[in-house]
Amino acid sequence: MSLKLLKHTNKDIDIFYTYEMVEDRGLSNKISLDVACYRTEENFIGKNDDYKNIIKENSKKTGLERIAILTAHGDSIRNNWFYFNEDAGSPIQHWIDDVDGKYNVLILDVCNPKNSQISSENSIVIHPNGGVSNRLLMQDLVQLELYLPGIGYLDSYLFEEQLKKLKEK
């Protein structure tokens, strides 16, 4: 079962966040939440044209358009990736399973210290490999992974080939 999260809806994005993020990231009002939505989208998607193209084609194929962001502290326990809220943890995969197919893209703004992997049936998932912070993201010092449903993780050299396949379908 996924943990209770706070939720803010922006124009095209729903951000789900923990109580700790209110203090740690200053997510205490509408303006700060809107800025967090914009910055997270920009840092995880906006700087990468290949990601944007894959996302656009996946949206055409699935009819899904919105983005969901999970912002929380994370860690690995016994090779499972967890997010935490008020001293309780829940597997990241449970959150993905809960929202998969409701959004075109799921962004996991959660530390992934053991480079854990995930899966989804309908939604693209973008997540860090390792630690993540706003400062590291803005300096492009976070390695991001893209999981494409039905395909798996994409290596950068496969983006062009995968984009052609998405356009053909």
Which features would summarize this protein structure in a list?
169 residues; 28% strand; nine-stranded mixed sheet; 6 helices; alpha/beta
Question: What can you see in these coordinates?
Answer:
30% of the residues are buried. This protein is α/β, with parallel strands linked by helices and 169 residues long. Helix content is 36%, strand content 28%. It starts with 5 loop residues before the first strand and ends with a helix. Strands 1, 2, 3, 4, 5, 6, 7, 8 and 9 form a nine-stranded mixed beta sheet that branches. The chain has one domain. α3 packs parallel to α6.
Write the layout of secondary structure elements.
Layout: E1 6-9, E2 13-17, H1 19-24, H2 30-46, H3 49-62, E3 67-77, E4 80-85, E5 88-91, H4 92-99, E6 105-110, E7 124-128, H5 134-138, E8 144-148, E9 152-153, H6 159-168
Parallel strand pairs: 2-3, 3-6, 6-7
Antiparallel strand pairs: 1-2, 3-4, 4-5, 7-8, 8-9
Helix pairs in contact: 3-6
